[in-house]
Amino acid sequence: MTGTEPMTDPAANPADPELLSREGVLRAQERLARRLPMTPVVRSDDLDELAGARLWLKAENLQRGGSFKMRGALLAVERLAANGSRGVVAQSTGNHAIAVALAAAPYALPAVLVLPEDAAPVKIARIRAAGAEVVQIGSTLAERIALVERLRAERGLDVIDPYQNADVVAGQGTATAELLAQVEAAGGRLDAVVLPVGGGSAVAGACLVTEGQSILVFGAEPVAVPALTEALRAGEPVTVAARHTIADGLRPDRIGQLAFELAHKRLTSVLTVEEEDIAEAMRLTLTHARLLVEPAAATCLAAALRIAADGWGDDIGVLLSGGNVETSLVASVLAGAPVGRS
Amino acid sequence: MTGTEPMTDPAANPADPELLSREGVLRAQERLARRLPMTPVVRSDDLDELAGARLWLKAENLQRGGSFKMRGALLAVERLAANGSRGVVAQSTGNHAIAVALAAAPYALPAVLVLPEDAAPVKIARIRAAGAEVVQIGSTLAERIALVERLRAERGLDVIDPYQNADVVAGQGTATAELLAQVEAAGGRLDAVVLPVGGGSAVAGACLVTEGQSILVFGAEPVAVPALTEALRAGEPVTVAARHTIADGLRPDRIGQLAFELAHKRLTSVLTVEEEDIAEAMRLTLTHARLLVEPAAATCLAAALRIAADGWGDDIGVLLSGGNVETSLVASVLAGAPVGRS
Questions:
Q1: Residue B34 has what pLDDT?
Q2: Cβ separation of A287 and B327 shorter than 8 Å?
Q3: Of A43, A290, A293, which is closest to B37 when you measure between CB atoms?
């Protein structure tokens, strides 16, 4: 198991291919170091007691743009801007789009973002506030990718794919790299890390940076959209029949090819989480860790509680991936409103 | 203006009187350094835009015990335990009590905490979870102080007053000291800091640590309980006719004598905040800074927004003092339920 598989289609990844390695992620971390806030690793005695383990919560909901996606977008946009890009286009369920919009703004680089029709309104608003253009289409990954391709061809834009771009994948890996360093600085040592699975860039990045380390890597995805579970079963990315999930960030119905290739051998396992457990984890994160997270991040905490209960380790790192969530959803989750079963 | 006034009643403060100075707070900071997590200073582009200033949010809602009160309690309990205390008693609206309970537990030091009858249930639960005894009485500071005195006499307990104890006041000052250091490390410089006013320990601590610095110090209290506003008018602490406020942590109807003496000359001003503005600030902190704070902390943010609007500075530090808040209150605030006018 090397964890640093060659890319299937290097042409799709104009960035430095050496980025796709542990060293590449650590280099990406250096590039980002002075440009993004160091998000804290939050501990909660209450959550630890509930888990029966020490949970180390990497609070990327406090990241610029409200999610860890800022990391990869900043690196990708920087490279394209340096190479004379005339504008960028990206598809996303929301957070990658916010991140690309924010990253492009200082370069005055036009940015067009393609989101599903049922994207979270708070995410649409944040993209527009950053001065970027939003186009919404359908609900499947295939529809968004087709539109991105059309916009690329028609307008001469550069694509920043959230799962295929090497800068993006390495950039997302820096969240795990930082978490590991922060836990070590606090005198701890992680047995496992848990990452949310949308298109797969978070797990791919984590697999790269933990290469050669004795640390388990878990993915967490909604029961409603078991894209990585099914991909692991099939041995390759497959499109799944997605049902509705409150975890809007984890709605991609297919794992990215590059992300899958980088992750599938190194990954310990992927857990699927019921909607009600996602909602409960949102409540727990809010009341015990005093952090507002979006359902994608809560999915990760819910999985971590099971991983702890199953005895996989005493020290578990959790990527609280983002905090862009509708106020109305938070209010209804806090009020204990049913979110439906998957 | 020296900011290091002599104490009215040194006998009431068994701790090192030299603590009550800038140097004393910095020494307290050293004592705490390796024992409490360094809470982050959170920035939000959205809040900055709203404020028209840079807001530096010291996230003490992420502190152990859910508030900055952990700082002073740890120092006071440590000193008493070293001096052979047989147990401690303290009155509090909640957070100081949680902090004393948590600080006493490792010493197996019995702790009795006196709270008002309308204390936040989440705070009562946290105190009991730490293994301490809770006694509830009335709603005024005078009732609580009388009961503390009786328990002290009857049971031979040591009192840890939240506003009179020098360890506590110096300890609370370390939150501001840390904030200043963190802002400086990030390349910034505060024009002003804003602290919530309950019994006055936060402003007193901030006044100590900013002694000799060119930085404005503001207090923030609910319109419903203008204890510091009235004390400044009278030139001494007075008991005010308190009305209901959602900011349960700011319900003390009288400023502590020591806190008043340490703060009143150095303080720039105290702002009073309407209930609806406290609720709105809770919403803003949650949706823009992704932090769950209790109404006392939100009172501080609401004041900071006015301080920014009034042009007092471009860089404003805000003590987000705590995050112990009822889930039901958060849900109703998010749903926009009216909280009443003061």
A1: 82
A2: yes
A3: A43
Q: Taking CB atoms and an 8 Å cutoff, what residues of chain B touch A66?
A: 290
The answer for B 56-85 residues in CB contact with A (under 8 A) is 59, 61-62, 64, 66
In this predicted model, what pLDDT tens digit does every residue of A44-56 receive, in sequence order? 999 999 999 999 9
d(CA B12, CA B8): 9
The whole-number pLDDT of residue A340 equals 65
Report how far residue B22's alpha carbon sits from residue A293's, in angstroms, rounded to the nearest whole number: 38
Whether CATH 3.40.50.1100 fits B10-65+166-334 = yes
Residue-by-residue pLDDT tens, chain B, 342 positions: 333 333 334 334 455 668 999 999 999 999 998 899 999 999 999 999 999 999 999 999 999 999 999 999 999 999 999 999 999 999 999 999 999 999 999 999 999 999 999 999 999 999 999 999 999 999 999 999 999 999 999 999 999 999 999 999 999 999 999 999 999 999 999 999 999 999 999 999 999 999 999 999 999 999 999 999 999 999 999 999 999 999 999 999 999 999 999 999 999 999 999 999 999 999 999 999 999 999 999 999 999 999 999 999 999 999 999 999 999 999 999 988 888 654
Residue B339: enclosing H or E segment and its boundaries? none
Asked if the Cβ–Cβ distance from B293 to A290 is below 8 Å, we say yes
**Record: contact A287-B334, CB cut-off 8 A:** no
Same fold, A10-66+169-334 and A69-159: yes
The three state secondary structure string of chain A is CCCCCCCCCHHHCCCCHHHCCHHHHHHHHHHHCCCCCCCCEECCHHHHHHHCCEEEEEEHHHCHHHECHHHHHHHHHHHHHHCCCCCEEEECCCHHHHHHHHHHHHHCCCEEEEECCCCCHHHHHHHHHCCCEEEECCCCHHHHHHHHHHHHHHHCCEECCCCCCHHHHHHHHHHHHHHHHHHHHCCCCCCEEEEECCCCHHHHHHHHHCCCCCCEEEEEEECCCCHHHHHHHHCCCCCCCCCCCCCHHHCCCCCCHHHHHHHCCCCCEEEEECHHHHHHHHHHHHHHHCECCCHHHHHHHHHHHHHHHCCCCCEEEEEECECCCCHHHHHHHHCCCCCCCC
Smallest CA–CA distance, residue A237 to chain B, in Å, is 34
Domain spans in chain B, listed from the N-terminal domain onward: 10-65+166-334, 69-159
Class of domain A69-159: alpha beta
For residue B272, give every residue at least 6 positions away whose Cβ sits within 8 Å of its Cβ, in sequence order, or none.
Answer: B220, B221, B222, B223, B226, B229
Q: Do residues B285 and A62 lie in contact, with contact meaning Cβ atoms separated by under 8 Å?
A: no
CATH fold, domain A10-66+169-334, is: Rossmann fold (3.40.50)
Compute the mean pLDDT over every residue in chain A, rounded to the nearest whole number.
93
Q: Is A331 on the interface with B (CB under 8 A)?
A: yes
CA B321 to chain centre: 6
Question: By the 8 A CB rule, do A117 and A94 touch?
Answer: no
Closest CB to B330: pick one of A62, A122, A334. A334
Rounded CA separation A97/A101 (Å)? 6
